[in-house]
Automatic annotation (TrEMBL):
The keyword Secreted applies. It comes from Pendulispora brunnea. This is Major royal jelly family protein. The lineage of its organism: Bacteria, Pseudomonadati, Myxococcota, Myxococcia, Myxococcales. Residues 1-16 form the signal peptide. Its main location: secreted. Keywords: Secreted, Signal. It holds the Pfam family MRJP. It is found in: Secreted.
Length: 370
């Protein structure tokens, strides 16, 4: 059994009663326990990643002036800038070489940590030269390379949100939640393509979204439009799944089609499949058996869906007020635990007429899957 991060506090019991929302959801077990792994004070964590030896990493997007650093390793509940302090020191003049606004951290099958920086602080637009992915070898903590995204891949109003890796075929797949698109990166030669940018599968939907009983609206009363966000790759690398955050439709496409540069936009769009209707999710992750885990924003929960039986109701893995906007997911290396960040996004000023209703500390949780 691989090492896992020690738990810091007494477990919080979550009673998983059936949901009362319109989409029926079954309970995974009669009771699940959420365990607190880390507290971050006023640092709002979104992404989480777990390495093979149990090391855990989180990131803090630059959505406020409070951000002290962008990427950190969690050790005994404390956070340390990673991979070094210099890269985590904000300097607008050095956006190409320092972190600007990191949204996601992901560990690939080679045990390399990838840091995705959409470089759009405060959602005010991509800083020129700042959009990038940074690859770190966790055996040495050395940065191996930086893959940069130009304005053709990361336009000014884009927000590269999450990424999944196929090391065997040497490809990466990203979502853009700012404008709506899928980005495909050939890791062997650095070639990048922006796909499905005009396809409805990558776009937000018009239905209202409520989180913890609060309907999301921005200052002018409009509903926010957050496009392709959650992303997951099946264990064989055959299917890529994605979902808009403000939407209820889960889509997928064969990765072979996404990699096929000869397909026209219309031909590729025709091969996209609608898998299921779900509650609006933020993070998504797929386990080694091909089960899809999604955060459920409306129910402060995490659910499990079998893509091979999409008509079956999702099953609740964990639910409770601790999961206040469950954001990103990551499995422990042995697959026995699922890590969950709670980012409280619905309490941010943009959804509360300029008033910040978030409460500190921000926390990282995990739930046993055994």
């Amino acid at each position: 059994m691989k090492a896992v991060l020690p738990v810091l506090a007494v477990a919080c019991v979550v009673h998983c009663a059936p949901t009362t929302t319109s989409q029926t959801t079954n309970t995974e077990h009669s009771e699940k326990k959420l365990e607190m792994v880390g507290e971050f004070g006023d640092q709002q964590a979104t992404g989480v990643a777990a390495a093979k030896n149990g090391r855990v990493f989180v990131n803090f997007p630059r959505w406020s002036d409070k951000v002290r650093y962008s990427v950190a390793e969690v050790t005994s509940g404390k956070v340390t800038p990673f991979p070094d302090e210099v890269r985590n020191t904000w300097d607008p003049a050095s956006a190409a070489d320092r972190f600007v606004c990191v949204q996601s951290v992901v560990v690939d099958s080679a045990d390399h940590l990838w840091i995705l920086d959409p470089a759009s602080p405060m959602f005010q637009g991509v800083v020129p030269g700042g959009a990038k992915m940074v690859e770190v070898d966790l055996a040495t903590n050395a940065v191996l390379r930086t893959i940069r995204f130009g304005a053709d891949i990361a336009p000014t109003k884009s927000y590269l949100n999450d990424v999944r890796f196929d090391r065997e075929r040497r490809f990466a797949y990203l979502t853009d939640s700012g404008l709506g698109a899928i980005v495909v990166v050939d890791l062997a030669n650095g070639t990048q393509r922006r796909l499905l940018a005009e396809h409805p599968s990558t776009k937000a939907e018009k239905e209202p979204v409520s989180v913890a009983g609060q309907t999301l609206v921005v200052a002018n009363g409009d509903r926010p439009q957050v496009h392709a966000d959650g992303i997951a790759l099946d264990p064989t690398g055959t299917w890529l799944y994605w979902h808009a955050l403000t939407g209820r439709s889960l889509y997928r496409a064969k990765t072979a089609d996404l990699r096929d540069a000869s397909l026209t936009p219309d031909a590729l769009g025709a091969r996209v499949e609608l898998v299921a209707k779900t509650h609006p999710p933020d993070g998504m992750e797929m386990d080694a058996s091909g089960q899809l885990f999604l955060t459920d924003l409306e129910d402060s929960a995490v659910v499990r869906l079998d893509p091979n039986a999409p008509a079956a109701a999702p099953r609740i893995v964990a639910r409770g007020p601790q999961l206040d906007w469950p954001d990103s997911l990551a499995f422990s290396p042995d697959g026995n635990y699922l890590y969950i960040t709670a980012s409280q996004i619905e309490h941010a000023p943009r959804f509360n007429q300029g008033v910040d209703r978030r409460t500190e500390p921000y926390r990282l949780w995990r739930v046993s899957l055994k």
